[in-house]
Fold this sequence. Notes:
The chain is an alpha/beta fold. The protein has helices spanning 2-11, 26-35, 59-72, 97-114, 137-154, 185-201, 205-208, 236-242, 259-267, 277-297, 306-316, 329-338, 351-364, 371-378, 385-404, and strands at 18-22, 40-44, 81-87, 118-121, 160-163, 211-215, 221-222, 227-228, 248-251, 272-275. It has two domains: 2-275, TIM Barrel, CATH 3.20.20.70; 280-393, putative tagatose 6-phosphate kinase domain like (GI Alpha 1, domain 2-like, Orthogonal Bundle). The protein is built from 15 helices and ten strands. Strands 1-2-3-4-5-6-9-10 form an eight-stranded parallel β-barrel, surrounded by eight helices. Helix 9 (259-267) packs parallel to helix 15, helix 10 (277-297) packs across helix 13 and helix 11 (306-316) runs antiparallel to helix 13 (351-364). The protein starts with a helix and ends with a helix.
Amino acid sequence: MYLDEVLAAQKRGEAVGITSVCSAHPVVLRQSLEAFKHPLIEATCNQVNQFGGYTGMTPAAFVTFLRGLAREQGTDPESIILGGDHLGPHVWQDEPARNAMAKARDMIADYARAGFTKLHLDCSMRLADDPQGYLDPGVAARRAAEMASVAEQSCQDPLHYVIGTEVPHPGGVMGAQEGLHVSGVDDTRQTVDLHRKAFEELGLQAAWERVIAVVVQPGVEFGDDFVVPYVHEAARALSKFIEEQPVIYEAHSTDYQTPQALRELVRDHFAILKVGPALTFAYREGLFALAMIENECIPVDRRSNLIQVVESTMLDSPAYWKDYYKGAEGEQAFKCKFSLSDRVRYYWTFPRIQGAIETLLANLGEGPLPYTLCSQYLGEAGLTARQALQWKVNKVLMDYKRACTPTA
């Protein structure tokens, strides 16, 4: 597997990495399959699980969907590395441990059987009947080992694992954080040691040899309207520590980091760069730019009114953003459309919005957009409407590709 090549290159001192695309959006996935020779596509526990998740897809259905996209565009489905992200009881953390972990075990079994071979074991959250406060790291490690045991029994192919309890908040945080805490070396060493012990206690020594990465906090984060940039000096000790270990780091929440920061992360052994919201944010930017172009080209009675449809749909169905976007009504409405946390990504499959997108693309046609309007709203020219969406997403992907591939 290419992940082994990345690990070996890192241990030789080479600044090689891999981009982990965490998205189920067809445009994002198609561009990712085209951009990378070894595309690493990950599904998260709340996005895809045995109950369908917010995409409505089980692990097997997601694999069928992704491989179908690959065949449509001539990509070898076997080149895809399938990853499962935050696999654990995150979705069911309001339930007692007995119930939540039973569901988590069923989920990882489904992931393993469906062909996912890179599994992030994340049992770091406190469950309903756990003691108050932060979960004991030893408990988290034992639960992660239980998950690995189930995965090993569910799949004959060699699986690769990612461990780690210092996991950034999925999808970004809700408030600016001054002096964001970078994981300490002692805490990271404890994480590795506790997981190794938990694996060994369950007779999973062979599986432990396939643990390739540890999730830590390198000091990167984003929220509604801010990005915490990577600072090499702050992570120097953490970077040095992993050179003594047989694994690399996996960095979450790298969305919106500068190209230079992404290169520095890979150089400092945060070699698996996860990105998700930044890609659908770029897609949303593209759609809104096309809606502005439509307003200049299409009579009022024929317009898609996409932006207004998005806003009204999110206000009518607030479940995916109401716990994340704080403030007065006007502030919430603004965040629904423009937040870096990009909760609008949960709504693209809603029928009203899908219909508006189809109308928008039909109105703009298959030919190149008017030069002046394309330049005005996209900063580029000579693109069709569909190409504009692809171009927006691809700009983000290329920053990651260049960071992970020194010769790119």
